[in-house]
Amino acid sequence: MDFSGWEKLSLVDFDDYVTSTLFCAHCNFRCPFCHNGALVLGQDVSYIPWAEIEEYLRKRQGVLEGVCVSGGEPTLMDDILDKLATIKSYGYKVKLDTNGYRPEIIEEAINQGLVDYIAMDIKNSTERYPETAGLSYFEIDWIKRSIALIMGSGLEYEFRTTIIKEFHDEESIKGAARLIAGAKKYFLQMYIDREGCLEHGFHAFDKKEAEALRLAASEFVPNTKLRNYD
């Protein structure tokens, strides 16, 4: 399977690195507020030949510094480990964005040295994870396993939650932070109702409200910060 989206040059997807960002189609979650709805559902997507991406990355060695692999959910790609290995072979730093629902792939990527930075979404507290992920059946142990793998990997990483009034409050954010207690860093991200969202009509927290959530989370992750609230 090839990638379905590509931002050839990005200065925001991988801190401190000039980056090319690749997006895969399809996801095993159905978060109602997801802003990449078409990719998640695989609707009207086209695929970029891998050879074209390889050629671009080869030619820009020494100019580009990193590659961010995002989605959708990249760990669903049947050859994602091979693609990560190819990217690494060109000397790039690799950032993997994931929802953490395939810990076996995350474990292989870590063990094979294929990633330098992992950004994992923490959707909500254990109790509210299924509704936030848009699933009726949910294996929270898979999420817990991915968290443990990432935190024990020795790699740079971050956890992040998009905060939305319909899904989160101080107690649920405390529950989410409890899942990653002691993590290096945790971001609470502002929700934006974009055109591509799966569903619309949800509401963002204002900065004062978001700060209260940040303080609640910092009980378990002292380095909790707001993102996109500046």
List strands and helices in order, with pairings.
Blueprint: E1 5-10, E2 19-23, H1 37-41, H2 50-59, E3 66-70, H3 80-89, E4 93-98, H4 103-111, E5 117-121, H5 129-133, H6 140-151, E6 156-163, H7 170-179, E7 186-190, H8 207-217, E8 224-227
Helix pairs in contact: 4-6, 7-8
Structure description:
The chain is of the alpha/beta class. It has one domain: TIM Barrel (Alpha-Beta Barrel). Helices cover 31% and strands 19% of the residues. It contains 8 helices and 8 strands, in the order ββααβαβαβααβαβαβ. The chain has helices at residues 37-41, 50-59, 80-89, 103-111, 129-133, 140-151, 170-179, 207-217; strands at 5-10, 19-23, 66-70, 93-98, 117-121, 156-163, 186-190, 224-227. The chain has an 8-stranded mixed β-sheet with strand order 1-2-3-4-5-6-7-8, covered by helices on one side. A hairpin with an 8-residue loop joins strand 1 and strand 2 (19-23). The protein is globular, with a radius of gyration of 17 Å. The model has no long low-confidence stretch (mean pLDDT 95).
